């Protein structure tokens, strides 16, 4: 690939040119897991030829609300002229960003080579126009040079618009994977249940952000996505209407994001500092906040939808901290961890797509599917698309909704208000207001 700019922290910001036919996508947590898989699939989908179907943009009967099944649109076809792409990897360290960028470009080069050898043509100018850049952000910090607000300010200064905002990064304060509990859950609930609803992880109680002001898990999984989406909403509204995809925010949820994870009075400890397990309720609160944002951002003259994707269960780095300190033992446990997920897939579990790129399918679907196939926010705010793994076949997507969202609208508004108060307070501290 002859031309790719290295948009590192000291790069030239080549995405700042006013290219109206350029898709600009941001992926948080792009260096591993679902984020890295998403980047691979994003390039594969957007490099199809003019007039061809974009695979992830095709409507799927299982992913459409029943009342919209008869909708018809010609969207999902790559238009002419073929759009170019700027992919922004939002990572915590430059090393992670550089490694991810190298992996993404190497994989894409191999994919294009295989497609050419199979007689498939690559759109003229695609490789020359592709830019894979990076921006540093620490989701645990609101202020400071690597904080959320600084990240959004840099994006707004360097780029003319944002088309797709993938809020994928997440955090779990797992301290230990308790093997005896794992075995007990297998014996009492079955292997598949143990692998998609784990109750054997020990999590740090009361973990706080680096500045000590917030619950860390809540801050990363709830507050950070809210702030980024809210701050970059004006950039999303600037996305040219001539592009094949509408401006969207896509939040990566979890199969464990369920209302039952909340305490009896969730407002009393909304930052989850007293919870024995904070990951599950944080992801559910993230879902609720997205329903509120979807309602708010859809009211503008240029609506921006906030959709939720549930990628299933694959072996990612989120549980590595609980595998121990001895590297050889961590490696052994990791192999067993991955093999157990693969076994679940072979046994027919719809929740285990095995590969991160397969789990990323609902994220791409949320970003690319035409609005004709999505219920408006005043009917169902932030619909939730689930991956469906299929043994020996490619995965698909299933329509869903946030668990018990209708009975938690007051909590959703409460959480969004708390997030916005923190955002506005930090804007004053950083001299932005």
UniProtKB/TrEMBL annotation:
The keyword Repeat does not apply. It comes from the Eukaryota. GO terms for biological process: steroid biosynthetic process. GO terms for cellular component: endoplasmic reticulum membrane; lipid droplet; mitochondrial outer membrane. Coiled coil: none annotated. Keywords: Lipid biosynthesis, Lipid metabolism, NADP, Oxidoreductase, Steroid biosynthesis. GO terms for molecular function: 3-beta-hydroxysteroid 3-dehydrogenase (NADP+) activity. The keyword Lipid metabolism applies. PANTHER family: 3-KETO-STEROID REDUCTASE ERG27 (PTHR43647:SF1), DEHYDROGENASE (PTHR43647). Belongs to the short-chain dehydrogenases/reductases (SDR) family. ERG27 subfamily. This is 3-keto sterol reductase. The lineage of its organism: Eukaryota, Fungi, Dikarya, Basidiomycota, Agaricomycotina. The gene is ERG27.
């Amino acid at each position: 690939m002859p031309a790719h700019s290295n948009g590192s922290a000291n790069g030239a910001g080549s995405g700042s040119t006013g290219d109206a036919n350029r898709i600009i996508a941001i992926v948080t947590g792009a260096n591993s897991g679902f984020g890295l898989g998403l980047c691979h699939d994003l390039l594969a989908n957007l490099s199809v030829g003019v007039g061809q179907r974009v695979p992830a943009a095709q409507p799927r009967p299982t992913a459409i609300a029943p009342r919209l099944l008869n909708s018809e649109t010609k969207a999902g076809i790559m238009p002419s002229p073929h759009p170019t792409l700027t992919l922004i990897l939002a990572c915590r360290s430059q090393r992670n960003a550089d490694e991810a960028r190298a992996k993404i470009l190497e994989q894409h080069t191999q994919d294009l080579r295989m497609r050419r050898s199979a007689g498939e043509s690559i759109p003229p100018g695609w490789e020359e126009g592709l830019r894979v850049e990076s921006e540093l952000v620490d989701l645990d910090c609101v202020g400071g040079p690597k904080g959320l607000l600084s990240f959004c300010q840099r994006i707004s200064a360097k780029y003319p618009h944002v088309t797709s905002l993938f809020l994928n990064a997440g955090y779990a304060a797992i301290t230990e994977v308790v093997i005896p509990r794992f075995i007990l859950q297998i014996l009492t609930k079955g292997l598949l249940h143990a692998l998609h609803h784990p109750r054997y992880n020990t999590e740090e109680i009361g973990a706080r952000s680096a500045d000590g002001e917030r619950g860390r898990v809540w801050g990363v999984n709830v507050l950070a996505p809210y702030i980024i989406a809210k701050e970059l909403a004006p950039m999303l509204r600037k996305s040219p209407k001539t592009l094949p995809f509408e401006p969207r925010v896509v939040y990566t949820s979890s199969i464990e994001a369920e209302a039952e994870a909340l305490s009896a009075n969730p407002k009393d400890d909304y930052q989850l500092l007293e919870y024995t397990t904070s990951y599950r309720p944080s992801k559910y609160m993230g879902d609720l906040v997205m329903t509120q944002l979807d309602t708010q951002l859809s009211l503008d003259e240029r609506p921006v939808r906030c959709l939720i994707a549930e990628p299933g269960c694959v072996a990612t780095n989120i549980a590595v901290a609980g595998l121990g300190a001895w590297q050889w033992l961590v490696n052994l446990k990791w192999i067993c961890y991955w093999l157990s997920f693969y076994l679940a897939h072979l046994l027919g579990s719809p929740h285990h797509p095995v590969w991160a790129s397969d789990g990323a399918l609902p994220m791409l679907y949320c970003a690319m599917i035409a609005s004709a196939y999505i219920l408006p926010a005043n009917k169902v705010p932030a619909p939730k698309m689930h991956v469906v793994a299929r043994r020996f076949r490619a995965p698909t997507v299933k329509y869903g909704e946030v668990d018990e969202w209708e009975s938690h609208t007051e909590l959703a508004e409460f959480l969004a208000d708390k997030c916005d108060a923190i955002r506005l307070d930090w804007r004053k501290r950083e001299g932005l207001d």
